[in-house]
Design goal:
Its cofactor is pyridoxal 5'-phosphate. By secondary structure, the protein is α/β, with parallel strands linked by helices. Helix content is about 40%, strand content about 15%. The protein has 13 helices and 15 strands. Helix 4 links the parallel strand 3 and strand 4. The longest helix is centred in the C-terminal third of the chain and has 19 residues. The structure holds pyridoxal-5'-phosphate. The site of pyridoxal-5'-phosphate (PLP) has 13 residues, from helix 3.
Amino acid sequence: MINFTVGPVQSSEKVREIGAEQVPYFRTNEFSELMLENEKLMLKFSAAPDGSKAVFITGSGTAAMEAAILNTLTSSDKVLVVNGGSFGQRFVELLTLHEIPFTEIKLDQGKQVTKNMLAPYNGGGYTAFVVNAHETSTGVYYDMNLISDFCKRNKLFLVVDSISSFLADEFNMEKLGASVMITGSQKALACPPGISIIVLAPAALKRVQNSKVKCMYLDLKDAIKNMERGQTPFTPAVGILRQIHERLLCIDKDGGVSAEIQKIADLARYFRQEIKELPFEVVSESLSNAVTPLHPTTASAYDIFTILKDEYGIWVCPNGGKLKTSVFRVGHIGLLTKDDYDTLISAFKDLQKRGII
Ligand SMILES: *Cc1c(COP(=O)(O)O)cnc(C)c1O
């Protein structure tokens, strides 16, 4: 099998080896040290400002999205939220559920946020801005510099879901003035699913300390307090945290976050170059390095996904909902090589020869 989905993705051999080991007991100095190192590297790789902290939540990315909304926003906020697909929609649902006032910036499929779209909200009394840096469902990578400028001018508290973009696209929390950054274990971190990570800048830590959260498991005050000694309030996914440790150390040793981004960007560029002759349209105004969203002009996207999986042992990423038959995605994160893309492109050419696409 070759997996080109956007998560879970393929892991390195070392990460997989850790997955095969016994899971150790974790209330120990050894595990605390590992966790503090995880925190240090997460703060480094997200370019978090001084005084920031990271917490590790056992739960998929959505747990961290919900924890961030619950702990840093209240009913006194007035939030702007970008909704360009299913992950933007998830933030809209979380804000609705937790009764936080918001205005939705709704985008058509594949569209970028523009200056003109933000202009009507200038000076509109907003307090916070919530966005997925990369809307993975449609493959649109938002103009984070534009959003950052808008937030700085309007003094907005910026919450960024970087789940699929962290380690794939440049992300500098300090430069962007982002107060919250969220990511997850199964995207470019290339570990099994089960852990999500929240990096909190000082402005976010202050909001967390003042919040009155009606939730025990996702109360970040408790998580932050425990993390001071490298621990978590409840039993975490110990094995995955050990795998994340291995992966973070490996990235650090191999040239750091910029080298990792470069590697993913090179694969994305190679794939996009090689498919130019195939009957596919790229359906995003602005691409992340993490994924290429494709509209096949001669066949159903879902049929292509199924045939590649069943007959070629290749997994591309299907879309759900309205886009099920019109769009599939090819990921560039996880353990992949140019040879893997050559195999995928040969399979596409074979589908062409067979008259399927
Ligand atoms: C994958 C992803 C999530 C998290 O989804 P989970 O299934 O809860 O891990 C959230 N936001 C974006 C942009 C994602 O790509």
